[in-house]
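Reminder to self: tokens first, then the designed residues, so the page reads top to bottom the way the pipeline ran.
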């Protein structure tokens, strides 16, 4: 599966799997050292700015959407960030 075909309904996809789906190795990431990538991919919590840099290193962008958790159907979302 290509990274651009990854459905939005896969929120638990690990960063490592995402990178691998692009055919990239940790050493291919130019903005981080291999050691930093290894640590980053194991984190459970990550700064948004770090995630943006990580994704940019793979030629990917990020969209952040919000939705009303109390709505009976979660069909309406609002885009709040696109980088």
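Designed residues (83 positions):
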């Amino acid at each position: 599966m290509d990274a651009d075909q990854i459905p939005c309904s896969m929120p638990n996809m690990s960063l490592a799997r995402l990178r691998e789906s692009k055919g990239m190795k940790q050493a291919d990431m130019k903005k981080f050292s291999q050691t930093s990538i290894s640590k980053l991919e194991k984190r459970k919590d990550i700064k948004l700015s770090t995630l943006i840099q990580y994704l940019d290193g793979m030629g990917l962008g990020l969209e952040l959407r919000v939705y009303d958790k109390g709505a009976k159907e979660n069909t309406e979302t609002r885009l709040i960030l696109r980088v």
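Residues 1-10 have pLDDT under 50 and may be disordered.
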